[in-house]
Amino acid sequence: MVTTVRSLGLTGVSGYEVTVECMLSGGLPAFDVVGLPDAAVKEARERVRAAVKNCGAQFPVSRITVNLAPARLRKEGTVYDLPILLGIMAASGEVRTLPQDGAFLGELSLTGTLRPVTGVLPMAMFAARQGVKQLFVPAANAAEATLADGVTVYGVENVSQLMAHLKGESAIPPTPRWEPSAPRTPLPDFADVMGQENVKRALEIAAAGGHNVLLIGSPGSGKSMLARRLPSILPDMTRPEALQTTEIYSVAGMTDPAHPLVDTRPFRSPHHTASPVSLSGGGSIPRPGEISLAHNGILFLDELPEFDKSALETLRQPLEDGQVTITRATGSLTLPSRFMLVCAMNPCRCGWYGHPSGRCRCSAQQVEQYMRRVSGPLLDRIDMHIEVPSVEYEAMRRKEQPESSAAVRQRVNAAREVQKRRFDGTAVTCNAYMTPAMIGQYCQLDAAGEKVMQGAFERLGLTGRSHDRILRMARTIADLDGAESLQVQHLAEAIQYRSSNLLK
To answer: What dotted CATH number matches 190-428?
Structure first.
């Protein structure tokens, strides 16, 4: 007799259905798992055997064959422990029936307790789309699973509890849908930053349009301080954005059981020693890297020239496509990676080039060599090149309170609302992601604007890509001003953010 149990698996950040088939047959006692399992799945045999005995049931003395279908996909991890156990129990008669609209997943301890697994949210969302009505998961994963609409979640503490539920002896109560209750932790505020009004203006534009930013300045000018306060002026995440980001964090095993939904925009700041794999993702079992963990948020690279060149070049495709493709011998995997890139760097190795103190001793050749550590194609993909001047003493001692993040955020939200209406019905969410056709439609220039753009194109040696990025920035500036059409002053301000003397 063959029994089947519905379960789920993962490919990247997408779920798929796995059917666990169990058969007991005559012959010498054996326990085989087939269906392209990895080492962790094969080890389930011992965990299942111990869990059955420790929950008071009788482990069948027969030849046991377990098949994980579809067999063409590699099965990874410990998520199949529970469905394998239930399949064996059903085949041996310990459990009479299993719900046909139910799916099971979870890792077993030797005592029969269920341990949490990763990737529960994308599996739960797939299960809901496939008509699964009951989802049995480890209790620690239950809150996360309830984020998926259309499925009743049961949080299981141990095998004995689940067996009693399936036999109708003691029902497990459904897990209530998780809703945020505690107030958010306040983010660092722009009001903490004295001076640097021009840089704050640039970051406001970047937040309003989703543009990439490079901050260049001497040590202590406030580059990192400003970058870390950028999330405080970004608009709130929509529900679809929060679920997308949470799926990635779930696969990476980084969700908080007490607060499973990632509802604040991520701010990822990897160290400059980060490898290409840690940025892009991958490994023998591909997992999301920093590029994907920053999805719908900010990827902050401090000390940009100190990063490995090959690591930086992995940013090229994601910055253009909004996704990163990881190719391995076992196949390719595409992960979402739509983020704002914010970088900070010194103007030279010692950091003091152009400082009023004149303490820099770097030669022109050394400065140029330091700047060349960042490739031209990568710089071309960064919309705004902002010089951050050293802070003056008068600005530090100023008595008036700088503008708060809340005030700036109101203007950013207003500009984003304009963009939301503009791109309604499309996959585009902000000006930074406009397609060439959209640029032609929404970024039309008058005669004066054409003249200014032509002059900048020839003077700055712009590429086609940088030309389009300037127009996208100008559109954002116009949105902040509440203007319907692009005007010369909007275009001139956008060009200003692409004309840094340090990068020529």
So the answer is: 3.40.50.300
